[in-house]
């Protein structure tokens, strides 16, 4: 029967149509996970903890049994990144591997897995704009556009020419009830509007420290309209109990 086919099977069998999930350009995986030596990021660039950070590192390591000290790899990478002006170079990874007596590849695996480790230099102020669903519904797209345009028209992932700001788009930062928001360094700035976003950036540019938290008039995550529950006096110990239990 197969001998009667005038065309090969590959041209006879119809393959189901498939469309890509995204129309955006794809990034090569090695751009995300593979290290390439550069003049500013190669194993010959020296790195070691300062005396203060070494004392802190030893304190962190002491929290783990000696045979499991490799469990300190994440906090030590974070400590190294903070000392290295906000990014984790190959020298930082190699140093942490040596300090914890780990194969360097195990440290590379951690540093390339967690997005908290920046593998390229960043600006003095690292602005992470959340654009996940709750923030998006509250206007995070406008906040991201405002931040990028206010910083000279840069794009997410870029650094300003003066090296003061790097802006990236991130997933949920856990402040959904205060959306929209962004993080600068370790501080959350919430309940943002385009005006307050620009004000915060201007203060950082002047060397000032804006007050973190909600940029509206509310406190933390309280209802902006005021309390609507738990408005009466709370029960004290023994109230409304039988006399035997008071």
Kindly summarize this structure in a few lines.
By secondary structure, the protein is of the alpha/beta class.
What would you say this structure looks like, in words?
This protein is 32% helix and 9% strand. The protein has 246 residues and is of the alpha/beta class. It has a 5-stranded mixed β-sheet, covered by helices on one side. Helix 5 (90-99) packs across helix 6 (104-113) and helix 8 runs parallel beside helix 9 (194-205). Mean pLDDT is 87; it is low at 1-5 and 9-29.
Secondary structure topology:
Blueprint: H1 9-12, H2 29-33, H3 51-61, H4 73-83, H5 90-99, H6 104-113, E1 125-130, H7 133-137, H8 140-150, E2 165-170, E3 182-184, E4 187-190, H9 194-205, E5 213-214
Name the strands of the widest sheet in spatial order: 2-1-3-4-5
| Overall geometric form | flat
The total of helices stands at: 9
| Number of beta-strand segments | 5
The Rg value, from CA coordinates, equals 26 Å
What percent strand?
5-15%
Brief descriptors of the model:
single chain, 5-stranded mixed sheet, alpha/beta
